[in-house]
Write a structure and sequence with these properties.
The chain contains 14 helices and twelve strands. The protein is α/β, with parallel strands linked by helices. Bound molecules: (~{Z})-2-methylbut-2-enedioic acid (CIZ).
Length: 305
């Protein structure tokens, strides 16, 4: 049954000249069929570099928008139109304009988990892996507004020593991981290395050994000699962690850390997406150009690789 669906996806993908991207939080079977797996920005950059005509983004709305911002000449499809990101929707462009009016001298840094309109209103975009570097590169005399995730913003403030105005957004999935979950997991597996995502709450992060983005978690585990890890982020990443380190054990800090939006993507929906070219994500050109600037400024602050 699954083999038949996979064959169909392959045929459709070839006929549409499509590339399939899967975020690290996608269900395992989706990650396995994708051309590329990774974090939202890394995937959008990879897709832009291909000569595909269509990008099927197995992830959530803001990720497909980011791909559309970077690939204006490709058609970007999100297989489930309701796969949104409550965190990204916690600030609107109108609210951000209000915040900017209250802090006219400030620079705005937005987390990549934000809508295209919010990116367009921001000076710099950042990911969880480069937020500290981006903020460190900004002039110390300028106040900083960080949107929309207050837990990532707090982490950046702690790491950089900068006083940052935080927007009170949060990821519903990451905040389900509690301090009690961490204490229980550490007690049960005292030898494990605890990796937590900066979107987790402060008490959870205090009980962790490493604070890492999804890409950094994969790299860290791949290079580590340790054989047991507690993972405090969305559980989908454990699929790839296990694939790349079959000798190691990966334990979810909480089995409740499941993003319902990420799990909306299914094999059937990918087929429908490619058959009917649904659901196309279009970012209006004026917004796209301004949002692209905040992504370009982010890249300019980072050391050349
Ligand atoms: O930027 C991403 O893809 C997200 C949501 C998290 C991460 O740490 O990679």
């Amino acid at each position: 049954m699954i083999a038949r669906l996979l064959d169909k996806i392959k045929t459709l993908k070839d006929s549409r000249k499509a590339v399939i991207l899967a975020h690290n939080y996608q269900p395992g079977e989706i990650q396995d069929l994708a051309d590329f797996c990774g974090d939202s920005l890394g995937l959008s950059i990879k897709a832009a570099e291909t000569d595909a005509e269509v990008i099927v983004f197995c992830g959530v709305q803001f990720m497909a928008e980011t791909a559309a911002i970077l690939s204006p000449h490709k058609r970007v499809l999100l297989p489930d139109k309701y796969a949104g990101c409550p965190l990204a929707d916690m600030i609107t462009a109108e609210q951000l304009r209000g915040l900017k009016r209250d802090h006219p001298d400030a620079l705005v840094v937005c987390y990549v988990n934000s809508t295209a309109e919010v990116k367009a209103e921001s000076d710099y975009c950042c990911t969880s892996s480069n937020a500290v570097e981006v903020v460190n590169s900004l002039p110390t005399e300028r106040p900083i507004l960080f949107v929309p995730d207050r837990h990532l913003g707090q982490f950046v403030s702690n790491e950089t020593g900068r006083d940052i105005v935080l927007w009170p957004g949060y990821c519903r999935t990451h905040v389900t991981i509690t301090k009690e979950d961490m204490i229980a997991a550490r007690e049960k597996y005292p030898d494990a290395i605890v990796m937590a995502h900066p979107e987790c709450t402060e008490p959870v992060k205090e009980l962790s050994d490493e604070l890492l983005s999804t890409g950094q978690m994969l790299k860290f585990a791949a290079e580590s000699d340790a054989t047991r890890f507690i993972v405090a982020t969305e559980v989908g990443i454990i699929h790839t962690l296990k694939k790349q380190r079959p000798d190691a054990q990966f334990i979810a800090a909480s089995d409740r850390a499941v993003c319902p939006n990420m799990k909306k993507i299914t094999l059937d929906k990918i087929i429908a997406s490619l058959e009917d070219m649904i659901y196309e994500v279009i970012v209006p050109e004026e917004t796209r150009v301004r949002a692209r600037k905040s992504l370009d400024r982010m890249v300019e602050t980072l050391p050349a690789k």
